[in-house]
Structure formats: C-alpha cells, structure tokens
C-alpha cells in the first residue's frame, strides 16, 4: 500500500502561478511513474503531466510550455509548477503513483482560477 498526499491548491488569478506537491510513502526507486491528472466539473479526468522513474516527462498539449513536472527523490515528492494559469485550468488535481504492485491515487487538491 502506498499513501499519496497532494497539497498546494488554491485560488489564483488568471496569469498567476501555483505549485502543487505530491508526496508518496514509497521511495522513487520502487515507483515506475508519477503523474498529475485533473478533472473539471462535467468533464472527464485528463492526464496533465507525467514523470517516469528515469526522469522522462510528458505533458498534455493544453499545458505544454506553462506547466513543469519535477521531482525530489530525497523527499519522495513530485511537483507541478503551473504558470500563466487560465480559467480553463481550474479543476481538482490528483496525483497517481504507479508501482510494480499497483496504482495509487491521492485525494486531490482544488485549483480555482478566477479574478
């Protein structure tokens, strides 16, 4: 079992920035990949960004160039730096951890983009 805890959401004005954090209770050496997903009301959940154990990253087209996923191995933490936020980025952001034994989700953190 892996515990996954997100933090860092909140209210930000359009054009602003937020940094989300995702802490896993398991060493990165046991994790295949960690990813951020988001789900807005009335919409399907979508992949935002992913980082593999080898450090390979990939982004949704809608956030490419504005969001950056990174990790701190010593803290078992993955970050999502979100810049130039738009109203359409508002959603519940959730972290997913893939290990060799299963997939684990956090509870999510709300991001609201509004003036």
Would you mind describing this structure in some detail?
The protein has 115 residues and is an all-beta fold. Helix content is 0%, strand content 55%. It contains no helices and 11 strands. The protein has strands at 4-7, 10-12, 18-24, 31-39, 46-52, 57-59, 67-72, 77-82, 91-99, 102-105, 109-113. The strands form 2 sheets. Strands 2, 4, 5, 6, 9, 10 and 11 form a 7-stranded mixed β-sheet that branches. A hairpin with a 6-residue loop joins strand 4 (31-39) and strand 5. It starts with a strand and ends with a strand. The relative contact order is 0.33. The model has no long low-confidence stretch (mean pLDDT 94).
- Beta-strand percent range: over 45%
**Low-pLDDT ranges:** none
DSSP summary: helix tally: 0
Global geometry = globular
Order of helices and strands: EEEEEEEEEEE
Separation, N- and C-terminal Cα atoms: 40 Å
Largest sheet: 7 strands, mixed
Task: Work out the helicity level.
Answer: under 10%
Using only C-alpha atoms, the radius of gyration works out to 13 Å
- The overall average pLDDT, rounded, is 94
List keywords for this structure.
mainly beta, globular, seven-stranded mixed sheet, four-stranded antiparallel sheet, single chain, 115 residues
Question: What's the arrangement of secondary structure elements?
Answer:
Blueprint: E1 4-7, E2 10-12, E3 18-24, E4 31-39, E5 46-52, E6 57-59, E7 67-72, E8 77-82, E9 91-99, E10 102-105, E11 109-113
Parallel strand pairs: 2-11
Antiparallel strand pairs: 1-3, 3-8, 4-5, 4-9, 5-6, 7-8, 9-10, 9-11
């Amino acid at each position: 079992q892996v515990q996954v805890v997100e933090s860092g959401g909140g209210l930000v004005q359009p054009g602003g920035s937020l940094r989300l954090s995702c802490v896993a209770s398991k060493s990165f050496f046991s994790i295949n990949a960690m990813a951020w997903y988001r789900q807005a009301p009335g919409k399907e959940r979508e992949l935002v960004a992913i980082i593999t154990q080898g450090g390979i990253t990939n982004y949704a087209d809608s956030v490419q160039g504005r969001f950056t996923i990174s990790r701190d191995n010593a803290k078992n933490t993955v970050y999502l730096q979100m810049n130039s936020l738009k109203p359409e980025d508002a959603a519940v952001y959730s972290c997913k951890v893939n290990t060799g034994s299963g997939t684990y989700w956090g509870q999510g953190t709300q991001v609201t983009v509004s003036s």
